[in-house]
Amino acid sequence: GENVEQHPSTLSVQEGDSAVIKCTYSDSASNYFPWYKQELGKRPQLIIDIRSNVGEKKDQRIAVTLNKTAKHFSLHITETQPEDSAVYFCAARPRKVNTGFQKLVFGTGTRLLVSP
Amino acid sequence: EAQVTQNPRYLITVTGKKLTVTCSQNMNHEYMSWYRQDPGLGLRQIYYSMNVEVTDKGDVPEGYKVSRKEKRNFPLILESPSPNQTSLYFCASSSLIATRGGGGYTFGSGTRLTVV
Q1: What tens digit of pLDDT does each residue of B56-92 get?
Q2: Using a CB-CB distance cutoff of 8 angstroms, which residues of chain B are in contact with residue A6?
């Protein structure tokens, strides 16, 4: 089945710096790659996603890039702020017929700490 | 307000005492799923449902049951809880139709379960 690896597990940056979190996936047929932000004690919330027919997507200070050939995708946060501190999860949706094609396989998470 | 509602938020129980965690969504989503979150392991899928009366196992189904008798509700049942089921549980829902945001999950607020 699909396997998603996420790195690094923790990331500390200074306010204003950029942060990059990388994920690799194993199933070349995966077609949807969302990113979730989970603040302490709260639920994961979707912050950005990308589909397999797109190479890059931006939304203000966050962007996601996808390299289908290498089977990896990355989250980029520019001009980081203390409120960006959270755990970030990447996920991939394997494309399988009749076996719950809405399933998301998650990475193990990255704890981002932005220091003022 | 569109939301996924989980109850209870916190639960401490004893080994072997049956319990149910409820999940309800008001978005008319077809797809619902349960995940457990453990440190260093990310989010792992327990069970999912594609629609009413259609359920199937995820990656870690042992010790759990689910039912989907109504579209909005997807309870998680632990018939005989054990300490290794101590975890943070999330219910999630998604539309199967891309134009209605299909792909991304909306998560419930989580249930922290402790089995002693």
Answers
A1: 999 999 999 999 999 999 999 999 999 999 999 999 9
A2: 42
